[in-house]
Each structure stands twice: as C-alpha cells, then as structure tokens.
Automatic annotation (TrEMBL):
InterPro entries named in the record: Flavodoxin/NO_synth (IPR008254), Flavoprotein-like_sf (IPR029039)
Organism: Methanosarcina barkeri (strain Fusaro / DSM 804)
Protein name: Flavodoxin-like domain-containing protein
Compositionally biased tracts (Low complexity): 49-58
Domain Flavodoxin-like, chain residue ranges per copy: 74-227
Domain of life: Archaea
PROSITE patterns: FLAVODOXIN_LIKE, PROKAR_LIPOPROTEIN
Length: 230
C-alpha cells in the first residue's frame, strides 16, 4: 500500500509541474506578440499607408505655399505737381518693384501756387474730369495698384478721379499714398472706395511735403505693416 501511495503521489506531482510549465510558456508568447507591432515594422498594414501618404502631403503643402506666395504684378501710379509725390512714388517703387506710371494731364496745371489752388478748387466744385495725356497699357494684368497724389482741398486732385474711372479695378488691391501740408489723406480714401467698390483698399500713407526726401524709413515701415515687403 505504501508503494502504491508513493507512486500515486509522484504521478500527481508530475502532473502539477507539467500544468505550471504550460501556463508560463503561453504567457510569454502573448507578451512578445503584443509588443512586436509597436517596436518593429513588420506589419504592412501599418507602415505602408504612412510611407505612401507622406510624399503626397509634402507635395500638397509645397503647392499650397507656392500658390499663396506667387508674385503679384504691381503698378505704382501717381500724380505729382511740385514733385513731392513723385519722390515718394519712386521710394515705393524701389522697395516693391513692379512698374511705375505718372498720371499726366493734357493741359498742364499752372506753376503759380495761387493759380493752381484756384483751379483745383473750381474743378472740384464742378466735379470736372481733366483729360489725361498718358495711359496704362494692360491694366488688367496688375494685381496691386499704388495710387499716389497730393492732397488738394481735402482729397485727390481731379486727374486722379479721371484715372480711377478710366479702368476697371474690380478684384484689384488699391493702396493709396499722398503728400500733404497738414491734412493727411483727408477724405481721399472714402472717395477711392466709392469709385472702386469692388477693390480691396489697404491702409494708406500720408507724408508731409517738407519730409519727402527723408521719408524712406516711414515708407519702409508702412510697406511692412501692409505686408507688401518683409
């Protein structure tokens, strides 16, 4: 009986050890298999889509950047009687590039100050449109148009009214700038907005006539503020 009991005990112990060995082995396999996808690139279902999509994303990003940063064609147009506005126009042109154009009337204004003042006032009261001697070729090709002028009687000289009415500025960006002796832009921006209702009007610049030759820093700062230069 003792031999039989000992034999049975040995058999039971063997079965118990075998059961424990199987449980440890299964647990180890589960741990290894569960961590493998996180540490190795063995699964094509995980890695291939990432590699395939990456080049497409970069291309789309590059194309978007190129579209947004595409150069715009710029025109700097101005009317100048004494030459002050011409100085600012040239400073702007030097910094933004593009083309420059002077608005010139068929009949020149008098050189005498009082005579110019009287004529400008009369033209404004009559809502007169002076005939222009110069013309912009291919205005449709320009995206951005700077408009420069002296402040005469609180707004633009009437030749600038003529200029703005001669072309279609729909969809264009208009940027006003003027020279003055104390009245700034006056109501000129409102007049431009009324004449060009389908245009985008950016903040304008007003420079005193006595300061035009030293206005480079003011011009540069203004151009950066309206994001025409970096």
């Amino acid at each position: 009986m003792k031999k039989i009991s000992a034999l049975a005990l040995i058999i039971l112990m063997g079965l118990f050890l075998a059961a424990c060995g199987c449980t440890d082995s299964d647990t180890t396999k589960i741990d290894v298999n569960s961590t493998q996808p996180e540490t190795q690139n063995n699964s094509p279902n995980v890695t291939v889509p990432e590699e395939t999509n990456s080049p497409n994303t970069e291309t789309e990003s590059e194309n978007h950047t190129q579209t947004d940063s595409a150069p715009k064609k710029i025109l700097v147009a101005y009317f100048s009687h004494t030459g002050n506005t011409r100085v600012i126009a040239n400073q702007i042109h030097e910094k933004v590039g593009g083309d420059i154009f002077e608005i010139v009337t068929v009949n020149p204004y008098p050189t005498d100050y009082d005579s110019v003042v009287d004529q400008a006032k009369q033209e404004q009261e009559d809502n007169y449109r002076p005939q222009l001697k110069t013309k912009v070729e291919n205005m449709d090709s320009y995206d951005v148009v700077f408009i420069g002028y002296p402040n005469w009687w609180g707004t633009m000289p009437m030749p600038v009214f003529t200029f703005l009415e001669e072309y279609d500025f729909s969809g264009k960006t208009i940027i006003p700038f003027c020279t003055h002796e104390g009245s700034g832009l006056g109501r000129s921006v409102e007049d431009i907005t009324e004449l060009c209702p389908q245009s985008t009007i950016l903040d304008g610049l007003a420079i005193r006539g006595s300061s035009v030759k030293t206005a480079q820093d003011d011009v540069s700062e203004w151009l950066r503020e309206i994001r025409m230069t970096e």
